[in-house]
């Protein structure tokens, strides 16, 4: 069922005025995201018609935009990705480790997203792989899935990496499986110190190579001496790295990944209203504990759109990456080796999640009787169905 309010409603109502006010200040990628969200699941993108086999109820479903920043199209994409990951789960505890950038570095990342986000991925993954391989800690080669999030609950710029890691790895000679201690993966303080050093080393190299740009109040950081002076306090500061308790089994890992891998800055479920005051939405105030943590915030529509669009990733940037045993080149061989050492039979091939109109209809049964919906017509972009029907828009991704 279509939510009462979604992000597209904001962009359709206020997007044209925002484009005019910000002419010359929006990137091509941001403009494409705006257009995609506005067109998503409308006749502009085409769609299909379904009829119930039992009660003959008819429904029109418009296609999604397929843009990875659109809140509406994430369900099907996440489902396909998850089915592929199911076959890779190992029968042991998984841990969740989060690496967060200090505010001073996040400010640099704001105008250097591709460079700094890439450094964040590399520093976080290298930290985990290095400490895990150290015989003083685990002494094993591990695998991990890393997911980039760039937002805080209030849509502010808050880049951080979520890492999902099995609680163990292959011995360095590849002959044994080494498990971590129950309930404990790796020492957070050690992870934090190495992450800080690796990140700042890579950031300094990017500055030396001229891969960073600075504007406004940060313009002076283009000078090597001033940049070094600004980074010096960060070498002594505590960087936030934290490990959550292990997941309660493989199914909970998948449930978590379903929520996090294809998440965008804000979903329709958090939107409350759109009126003359602006956009009101729910957020969490992490400075407050208990039930008072959940609050409401109202932003002018232009500010809401600005905050949403700062989380548009650079073209071609991969926000989900695999490292160590899970690196694409050797993933299958490493998983087979791990299963053999864990004495686990190879899992069945992952269920194929189709991406056609029939699958979409099967996923959403008839709202009247629960019967099977059958595809009866497909119409192209900008067209309407030939049948004389009222244009009912429903939440099915048929792209």
Could you give the order of the helices and strands?
HHEEHEHHEEEEEHHEHEEEHEHHE
Mean pLDDT: 87
CATH topology-level name of the largest domain: Replication Protein E1, Chain: A
Distance between termini?
A: 18 Å
Identify the overall geometry: globular
Determine and state the CATH class of the largest domain: Alpha Beta
Radius of gyration, whole Å: 24 Å
Number of domains: 2
Distinct helical segment count: 11
Q: Find the structural class using helix and strand composition.
A: alpha+beta
Strand sequence of the main sheet, in spatial order? Answer: 9-3-6-5-13
Low-confidence stretches: 353-361, 390-399
User: Which percent band covers the strand fraction?
Assistant: 15-25%
Largest sheet: 5 strands, antiparallel
Oligomer: single chain
Please count the beta strands (DSSP E, at least 2 residues each): 14
Can you name the CATH architecture of the largest domain? Answer: 3-Layer(aba) Sandwich
**Helix share, percent:** 25-40%
In short:
34% of the residues lie in helices and 20% in strands. The protein has 11 helices and 14 strands. β5 and β6 form a beta hairpin.
Give a structural overview.
The chain has 2 domains: 41-86 and 352-399, no CATH class; 88-265 and 311-342, Replication Protein E1, Chain: A (3-Layer(aba) Sandwich). It has helices at 7-21, 28-39, 74-86, 103-110, 113-133, 188-208, 224-231, 250-260, 301-309, 331-342, 357-363, and strands spanning 47-52, 58-62, 94-100, 140-141, 143-151, 157-166, 168-171, 177-179, 241-244, 271-275, 278-284, 294-299, 320-324, 373-379. It is of the alpha+beta class. The strands form 4 sheets. The chain has a 5-stranded antiparallel beta sheet with strand order 9-3-6-5-13, sandwiched between helices. It has a 3-stranded antiparallel beta sheet with strand order 2-1-14, with helices on one face. Strands 4-7-8 form a 3-stranded antiparallel beta sheet. It has 11 helices and 14 strands. α1 packs across α2. The radius of gyration is 24 Å and the shape is globular.
């Amino acid at each position: 069922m279509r939510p009462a309010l979604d992000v597209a409603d904001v962009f359709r109502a206020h997007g044209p005025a925002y484009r005019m006010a910000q002419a010359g200040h929006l990137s091509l990628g941001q403009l494409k995201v705006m257009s995609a969200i506005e067109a998503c699941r409308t006749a502009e993108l085409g769609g299909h018609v379904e009829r119930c086999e039992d009660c003959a109820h008819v429904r029109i479903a418009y296609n999604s935009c397929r843009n990875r920043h659109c809140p509406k199209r994430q369900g099907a994409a996440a489902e396909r990705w998850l089915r592929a990951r199911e076959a890779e789960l190992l029968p042991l505890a998984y841990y969740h480790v989060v690496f967060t950038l200090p505010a001073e570095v996040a400010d640099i990342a704001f105008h250097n997203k591709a460079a700094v986000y890439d450094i964040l991925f590399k520093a976080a993954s290298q930290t985990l792989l290095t400490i895990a391989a150290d015989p003083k800690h685990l002494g094993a080669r591990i695998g991990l899935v890393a997911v980039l999030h760039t937002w805080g609950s209030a849509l502010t710029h808050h880049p951080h990496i979520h890492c999902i890691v099995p609680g163990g790895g292959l011995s360095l000679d590849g002959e044994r499986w080494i498990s971590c201690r129950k309930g404990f993966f790796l020492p957070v303080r050690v992870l934090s110190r190495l992450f800080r050093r690796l990140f700042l080393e890579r950031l300094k190299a990017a500055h030396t190579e001229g891969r960073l740009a600075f504007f406004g109040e940060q313009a002076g950081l283009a000078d090597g001496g001033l940049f070094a002076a600004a980074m010096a306090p960060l070498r002594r500061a505590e960087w936030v790295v934290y490990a959550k308790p292990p997941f309660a089994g493989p199914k909970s890992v998948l449930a978590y990944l379903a929520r996090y891998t294809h998440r965008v800055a804000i979903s329709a479920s958090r939107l409350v209203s759109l009126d003359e005051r602006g956009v009101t939405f729910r957020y969490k105030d992490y400075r407050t504990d208990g039930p008072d943590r959940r609050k409401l915030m109202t932003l002018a529509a232009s500010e809401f759109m600005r905050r949403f669009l700062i989380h548009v990733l650079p073209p071609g940037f991969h926000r989900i990456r695999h490292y160590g045993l899970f690196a694409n080149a050797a993933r299958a061989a490493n998983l087979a080796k791990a299963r053999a050492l864990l004495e686990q039979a190879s899992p069945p091939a992952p269920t194929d999640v189709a991406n056609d109109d029939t699958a979409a209809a099967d996923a959403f049964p008839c709202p009247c009787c629960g019967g099977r919906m059958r595809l009866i017509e497909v119409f192209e972009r900008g067209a309407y169905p030939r049948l004389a029907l009222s244009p009912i828009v429903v939440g099915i991704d048929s792209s």
